[in-house]
Amino acid sequence: MKEQNVASTKELVIEAGRTEKQYWKDLWRYRELFYFLAWRDILVRYKQTAIGITWALIRPFLTMVVFTVVFGQLAKLPDQGVPYPILVFAGMLPWQFFSNALGECSNSLVGNANLISKVYFPRLIVPTSAVIVSFVDFLISGMILLGLMAYYSFVPDWRILTLPIFILIAFAASMGVGLWLAALTVQYRDFRFVVPFIIQFGLYISPVGFSSSIVPQQWRLLYSINPIVGVIDGFRWAILGGEFSLYLPGFILSLVLVFLFLWSGIWYFRKMERTFADVI
């Protein structure tokens, strides 16, 4: 009887702002949703394709071949003392990760409109899972780089141990810009057409097919306003070693911009999150 009396006297208190305080804990509680959404997107992407996940290898490989011929053979740009295909692919890995993440993030909320409008969960999970899908492609594409190193008998030096740091920076850059685009695409559907242009334009102004060292010294700091420049230079510094040096002022500027995008992206996404279900 006493236990029944105690149970009957318990009160349920609904505290204002409680959900906001519990948001980051909810991300951990819903951690299995990261895996579910990412795995679903991976299966859907390559479903009913003849060669399946091999597309994640063919696309960057063919792009690398084109860049090597155009910039390495025709334009005769400097190769920093390493085989030009390795130079190109060391820059293509972070760019492919970044560009794929932007494309996936920008449409992630709209593509999951039914889920968002019916079920509560931290909406931040949706674009984050899209970045995870792009990271899986990144890991698969890394096999091509290993194959190129074996083919050219290229052995990286101790700097390769710092590569995980630059991978985290690439992840932060992808998340920061991706969160902005995801939230903006819900509000303004025009961004579905803007994002492919941003990705294509970004490829031209980023040092993917060439080394950023060819940029005149007086312009290198300004060139580093593009945050992906520092990410690509960091990857090349870690993978290529040898004669490849890191332009420190530009790298620091890119790093500051990356984390500024990440912080502001989280802030704007959280600000607009409560309206997603109404306007999506």
Helix content: over 70%
- Succession of helices and strands: HHHHHHHHHHHHHH
Shape: globular
SSE class: mainly alpha
Describe the structure.
By secondary structure, the protein is an all-alpha fold. The chain contains 14 helices and no strands. α6 packs antiparallel against α8 and α6 (84-111) packs across α12 (227-240). The longest helix is centred in the middle third of the chain and has 28 residues, at 84-111. The N and C termini lie far apart (51 Å). Mean pLDDT is 85; it is low at 12-18.
Task: Give the topology.
Blueprint: H1 2-9, H2 18-21, H3 23-29, H4 31-45, H5 55-74, H6 84-111, H7 113-118, H8 125-151, H9 163-187, H10 191-205, H11 217-223, H12 227-240, H13 248-273, H14 276-279
Helix pairs in contact: 4-8, 5-6, 5-8, 6-8, 6-9, 6-10, 6-12, 8-9, 9-12, 9-13, 12-13
Provide a concise account of the structure shown.
With 280 residues, the protein is mainly α. It has helices at residues 2-9, 18-21, 23-29, 31-45, 55-74, 84-111, 113-118, 125-151, 163-187, 191-205, 217-223, 227-240, 248-273, 276-279. Helix 6 runs antiparallel to helix 8, helix 6 packs antiparallel against helix 10 (191-205) and helix 12 crosses helix 13.
